[in-house]
Amino acid sequence: MLNIALFGPPGAGKGTQSKKLLEKYNLAYISTGDMLREEIAEGTKLGLMAKDIISKGGLVSDEIIVQIIENKIKTNTDVNGFLFDGFPRTVVQAYILEGLLTKLNTSLSCMLSLEVPKDELKQRLLDRGKTSGRTDDTEDVINNRLKEYDLKTAPVADFYKEKGIYHPILGTGSMNEVFSLISKPIEDVIQKTWFNVVLLGPPGSGKGTQAKEIAAKYHLAYISTGKILRESVLDGTELGMAAKKYMDEGSIVPDEIAIKIIEKAIEDNPTARGFIFKGYPRTIVQAYILDGLLRKKGSSVSAVIEIDVPVLESIKRLTARSKTDKSRSYDMDIDLIVKRLEEHHAVTSPVADYYAKTKKGWEINGSGKEEDVQRLVLNAAEVAFRKAR
Question: What is the reported pTM?
Fold first, then answer.
C-alpha cells in the first residue's frame, strides 16, 4: 500500500499537487479539515462531538481526529493507498499515525515537504486573498500562520528524517515541474516495494509451472516449500529429516519447519523484487504466519491466485505424473492422492476465502490447456502488479 504525507506551509501548493497525486496513484484523500466538516455536515456522532468543541472555541482532540481517519481508511478499500494532507502536524500526531497505520497493517511510505521561500509564500497568499475572498489571507494573519507552521512542523520533519522517509521538494516551479519532483521519490518507493504473490490450487493444478512463469516475468524469487523440503530430504539435512515423515504421509509439515524455510529463502534473496509462494500458505494459521513474516520485512501479500481444478482431473494428472521423472512419492498411491485432495479441500480452500475478503484474490479455471491457463494466470498477475504499483 502506498501511503504519502504531503507537507508544506500555507500557500505552498498542496491542494494543486494533491489532486494530481490522487489521480495518478489512485489514492484516497485524507484532509482532517475536510473530514471534520463532512462529519459535522452529516451529523455523525464524531461530527456532533467536534461541533460542540468548535462552538465553544476549543480545538478538536487528537482522539477524535484519529477515529475519523481510521474510519476513512477502513471505508476506502478500492484504492492503492492514502494521501495525508497536513497531517500529522505535530510530533504527537506523528506517533499517533505510526500506531494507527501499524494497527491497520500498513505504514507511511514517504513524507513529502513542499519548500517555498517565505517571501514567495506571503505574496502567493496575498494574491489569493484578492481573488478568493478568504478573510485569513491578510498580512498579519499570514505571518502568524507561517510562524505557527515553523514552530510545530519543524520537529515533525526531524521525526521523519530520522526514519529516512522525509523528502524536501522545491515548490517554486510550474505546477508540472513541481509534480515531476514530487513523483520521483514516490516512484523510488514503488520500485523498492516487493510484489508478493501466493499461488494456490489442489495437487496437480499446475502451480509449479505457472509460478515459474510469474517469477520470470516480474523478477520474483520463487519459494516452493515442497521443493525446498524435497531437496533437504535428499541432502539429509536436519530440516529434511524432521519433515520426511510428514511428506511420506502426504501431510502438512509443521509450521515451525515452514517458517525456517521461508525466512531463509527471503534472506538468501536480498535483491529480489518480491516473492512468489507456491503452495504456501496451506492453512489459515499459515496465512497469518506469512502475513507476519512479510510484515516483519515491511511488506505484505500483493495477490493470491487460486488455480481451480476438478477432483477427477487432479487425480488423472497426478496418476499420469507418477509415470514420469517428475513424480513424487505420494503420486504412486491413489489413497495418498485422495487424502491430499481431501485435505486441500478441507484445510486449504478456506485460505482462498480468507484472501478473497481482502480483495487480493483471483480464481482461475485450471482445466484448460496449459497455455490457456498460463494466459489467465499472467493476466491476473498483471492486474495485481499494476494495483500494487
Answer: 0.64
